[in-house]
């Protein structure tokens, strides 16, 4: 059993933070902001790179993959 497996069942509960919820609701908010910043950067600095292919190393449950799916070919891995 991997070290993550022991936390997998209640992973979201472990990330629960009342202070964060006051500003963003859930952790996906910050991940989506990072994805938006990444896409702005890539469009500005690699405008001819199409189709974009992105790897999310350490993707967890995959919220960034789901967010980016319509904008690029996305792949994720987590160990």
How would you characterize this protein structure?
There is one protein chain. It contains 5 helices and 2 strands; from the N terminus they run H-H-H-H-E-H-E. With 79 residues, it is of the alpha+beta class. Strands 1-2 form a two-stranded parallel ribbon. Strand 1 (53-57), helix 5 and strand 2 form a beta-alpha-beta unit. The protein is flat. 6% of the residues are buried.
Secondary-structure blueprint of this entry?
Blueprint: H1 5-8, H2 11-15, H3 18-24, H4 28-45, E1 53-57, H5 63-68, E2 73-77
Parallel strand pairs: 1-2
Stretches where pLDDT is under 50 for at least 5 consecutive residues are none
Strand arrangement, major sheet: 1-2
Based on CA atoms alone, the radius of gyration comes out at 15 Å
Number of helices: 5
Distance between the termini: 11 Å
* Average pLDDT: 83
Order of helices and strands: HHHHEHE
Report the biggest beta sheet as strand number plus sense, adding barrel if it closes.
Answer: 2 strands, parallel
What is this structure, in a nutshell?
51% of the residues lie in helices and 13% in strands.
For the structure shown, list the relevant keywords.
single chain, 79 residues, alpha+beta, two-stranded parallel ribbon, 5 helices, flat
